[in-house]
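Recall that a protein's primary structure is simply its ordered list of amino acids. Everything else, from secondary elements to tertiary packing, is in principle encoded there. The following example makes that idea concrete.
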Amino acid sequence: MKEKVIRVLHSLSLVEDPSRILRAARFERRFGFTIGKHTQNLIRNAVRLDLIRRLPKPRLFGELELILAEEEPVGVLRRLADFRVGPSIHPGITLDKAQIGLLEETAEILVWFSLLFLEEKVERWGVLFLSLLDPLEPEEANRLAAEFGAGRRVREWIRISKEEAPEVRDRLLSTRVVSRKIVYDALSPLPNEVILFLMAKAKHPDIKRYISLYFTQLKSVRTQVTGKDLVGLGYSPGPVFKEILDEILERKFAGELKTKADELSFVLSSFPKG
């Protein structure tokens, strides 16, 4: 350790536990160490023998989660790409130049998000995990997540990123005039992890701009008037409540309503009581 070189204890070490390959790459990056040349040769040989595929899938998932939670996860993944580890995780995960590029963009988006200093919570590793699974078709990604033993929330991120997020992107890009309310309605149903993945993957600058607008100006906006207030004003509960609250929200996005008194006044002047 004084030499800052990572070495295996004996030649069968990686055969006994192939997860040591992933940990070696992780610790090399974290501590600024170097994997010794002999150990590098053993890693390449272990990869050629496809030993990583023998690992129980939940254990492999645990190691990947630890990598993605590192301070510099893309550096670790780039090192694993040097050893051609990706296809041992799944044949579709090649960790080629394009995929590493997406992972780098994802890491940059996460830095941007952290600098907003929002109270919003986001699982950084989860956003990177979605980028890692990006090359896989929805069915394959879902199957791999099940084999990994990933929790329901993670599997839901995957499903939404594969099925709903592309529809949201296409809807925003095909709308001629995109209001703040349209941006809010499109993005608010999605988990933060999926939205940030969508931002990283987006090639069109408008999508990045809409997502930036959503996090910085729209997501925290709430109506001060509630359904209870509407009942107190004499309105009967029903579909009109959603119509009223949606209209208040749109006016708040436009900066027209600042206070609760403004909202109440707007309701009384704009929605006659049945």
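Residues 227-270 form one domain. The chain has 16 helices and two strands.
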